[in-house]
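Complex 463.
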Amino acid sequence: MAKVGGLADVVGALPKYQTNAGHQVRVIVPCYDTKFKKENDFECVHWGNVQLGNFNFPFKVLKETTNKLGYELYLIEIEELFGKPNVYGYEDDIERFLSFQIATLDWITVRGEAPTIINCHDHHTGLIPFMIKYGYKYESLRNIRTVITIHNGLYQGCIGFDKLHYLPEFDLIHVGFLEWNHSLNSLAVGVKCAHAATTVSPGYLNEINISANGLEDLFKSVRSKSKGILNGIDFEVWDSHNDPMIDKKYSDKTFKAGKQKNKERLCEQFQLDPAKPLFSFIGRLFEEKGGDLLPQASALALSENFENINILILGSGNTEIEKQLIQLRNEHKGNYNVFIGYNEELAHLIYAGSDFILMPSRVEPCGLNQMYALRYGTVPIVRRTGGLRDTVIDFGDNGNGICHDQASVEDMCYSINRAVKLYDDKINFSKIIKKGMATDHSWERVCQEYIEIYNLIIEKNEI
Ligand code: ADP
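Predicted structure with adenosine-5'-diphosphate bound:
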């Protein structure tokens, strides 16, 4: 329906596997103006009005009619706020996500059948646990258990207290739950009020106690109700053996020929040389992803290796980084290229056709790219942080990838140089690829960990 990054992969896949495990799962998302919305059929199951202070927004709840995603999908359509193509980045984001949360609860209140658990994802849904606990009009929902899953603790959805009156009425004695560092911090509220909090990797849970954009003490204080659960990957979508988006399909037995064919296609499209190792990056071009390191590290790695490597970048984000990456194209024609934008199909082809994936992240709560890369026989080169530390072990320690410690141009280049040597050592290279392809990050296993948390908070029965 909509995707910016890893949260969409998780919310798209986890419910499917929870449904397969015998649970009744429904996904509720805002109705963005996306291709999926235009190309699929929906029936209207409810309509109402969201009151935001003096503003009133009519909304509809649309149900996808076929359940083809493997679970029931509901869209909250608030035309005036969400009838835009992007997920976020608008001036009225506060009004948008607040209305989404209120409309969702308003609908659930009249729906007749309340869920046992609501699993909220990131700050955009962080006020739901508070409203359920303390909102006067949500009294009938008080028994619902809530979990907040933190995909990225850097973004917290801060709202000025001048907008406090947007919230449905509640007993002001509880106003303290809303405050963190003098603002109404949606993520902090979610973490305080939910019955459990999860992060998308165990490594990230440890890290946010030390660095979390001002929420460190809060995360420390809720440690006993928190758990780090490493994301899974959806093998039905990410399967080199069966991927309609790649040129040549392959398994762990046929990866050499298969990957080479995909690499040739990729190299032809981007005027690169398929005889040289191909290093790729896919992701949001921001500092947290190490995007700012890419221009300089690419230039240095290309010159240190006498242009005997290829580098390909797919992403968008910071315009200064984008500009520098485009500029580099002129200086390293035939060895370097960049595609600025979001392109799902190209991402699949890059995982399949590259030899190495670069992930120089400063912050990586879980990271899915390295898991897709491993699955597609592409060796990840990562900075040891968050979920990357949990999933990639250096081949020097008998592992499945290449790791360095600093988010720096020097460390990145050092790893690229090690990768070039590994690429030439064909026997070892194949061994590491096979090891990566055999790694099991299936959702079947991971989804049980979520279910354990749900059971735990149901058993505890604390309001
Ligand atoms: P984050 O959620 O922080 O962006 P993750 O590694 O968890 O990072 O998830 C990124 C997801 O988004 C992956 O599925 C990746 O393939 C995809 N992705 C990121 N940028 C692009 C892009 N420009 N084009 C296509 N897919 C992208």
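The first strand starts at residue 26 and ends at 30.
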